[in-house]
Design brief:
The chain has helices at about 5, 10-30, 40-50, 55-60, 65-75, 90-100, 115-130, 150-160, 175-185, 225-240, 245-265, 275-290, 290-300, 310-325, 330-340, 345-355, and strands spanning about 105-110, 135-140, 165-170, 190, 205-210. By secondary structure, the chain is of the alpha/beta class. α9 links the parallel β3 and β4.
Length: about 350
């Protein structure tokens, strides 16, 4: 039996030896500089939280030196979510949508084609369906229409139904030209987004964005699905007693947290503040209160029998399968998967998305 050494040409062996020697020399020359520890702070936080000094050290290193912020980071609660009315533009948007429902106007959700847009679209669609709204959704083709609002698509939607109300999800804040065109033809447009705000804001009926100029919203890192979840929450409040959603809508919101968690993880926003709350509870919801489509998606991803889901299960298991549809111009199928009430259709869609991945 030949040895490995004998099977490698001599000049390759010599090069490898030199590389190892250089690497070793560099390693010896390196000096580690350790960040100074606040020993008193570690002991204080450890005692207040009743956790190990090592965990306290990690928390302080991450910037959580105060007991309240550290406790919120470790034990995020649903009650830590800010009331949706604090989000800029959301009251006006929710009022317009509820009025459109009452007037029996068609509402079209114009959602982006990535996981964030697909899950946000699904959240709002479920909410409006439960509200007995006349609702549909539109997801642009990435290959033909590109990102954001599209003039031709908006014109077509308006021609099909001039009384239609369009609500964007996860896109539109940069669509200045498209919003102006919509206004010129009389198309009512509400924009909900979380992306970078440019020098000029689009002229829509309402803008909903956590970082609008002049905003005092406490958390500016929501993703598009997070913003859609807040809008759905505000709509549910209005269809309840004005402050609290009905029991039926509360159950929907619990389920919607799972979809919001999927969008939050897939969009790689910081898992802090409200995002941490959404993901912590959403992972549990995805496991226990999934839609038919989510269950089918977990099956094809090999996650259905897993007792506990983690964020990386979304990032590497569920998210890529949804993204595959949008990447190939078929995001609408991903929304259908997350909104269908037909188990057989859900299975077929999940299997198809699995082949695209």
């Amino acid at each position: 039996m030949r040895s490995i050494r004998a099977s490698v040409p001599a000049h390759y062996t010599a090069q490898l030896v030199k590389h190892i020697q250089r690497a070793g020399a560099n390693y010896v020359e390196r000096k580690w500089t350790f960040h100074p520890h606040d020993e008193a702070g570690i002991r204080r936080l450890s005692g207040q939280l009743r956790v190990s000094p090592l965990l306290s050290q990690v928390l302080i290193a991450r910037g959580f030196s105060q007991v309240d912020s550290a406790r919120a980071f470790l034990g995020a609660k649903l009650s830590d979510l800010h009331d949706p009315s604090e989000l800029p533009g959301i009251d006006a948007a929710a009022d317009l949508i509820v009025r459109a429902i009452q007037d029996k106007r068609r509402i079209t959700i114009y959602g982006d084609y990535d996981v964030d847009g697909v899950t946000g679209t699904s959240i709002l669609w479920h909410c409006l369906q439960l509200s007995n709204a006349t609702v549909d959704y539109y997801n642009p083709c990435r290959l033909e229409e590109g990102y954001g609002l599209n003039n031709a698509a908006l014109q077509q939607l308006h021609e099909e139904d001039p009384k239609r109300l369009v609500v964007s999800v996860d896109c539109g804040i940069a669509s200045v030209e498209e919003a102006a065109m919509a206004k010129s033809i009389g198309l009512d447009l509400i924009i909900t987004d979380h992306h970078h705000i440019g020098s000029q804001l689009p002229d829509a009926l309402v803008l909903v964005h956590p970082r609008l100029p002049g905003s005092t919203y406490p958390f500016g890192e929501l993703c598009g699905a997070g913003v859609a979840f807040k809008l759905a929450w505000a709509i549910c409040q209005r269809l309840g007693d004005g402050k609290k959603a009905s029991p039926r809508m509360k159950e929907f919101l619990k389920q919607a947290v799972g979809l919001a968690a999927l969008g939050t993880v897939a969009d790689v926003v910081p898992l802090l503040g409200e995002n941490r709350v959404i993901v912590r509870y959403g992972l549990q919801t995805v496991r226990e209160q999934s839609t038919l489509g989510m269950k089918a998606l977990m099956r094809v991803a090999g996650l259905f029998d897993k007792p506990e889901l983690r964020a990386d299960d979304i990032g590497f298991g569920l998210g890529p399968r949804i993204n595959a549809a949008g990447r190939l111009g078929q995001a609408r199928l991903a929304v259908e998967l997350l909104t269908t009430e037909n188990a057989e259709r859900a299975t077929k869609l999940a299997e198809y998305l699995d082949t695209l991945n």
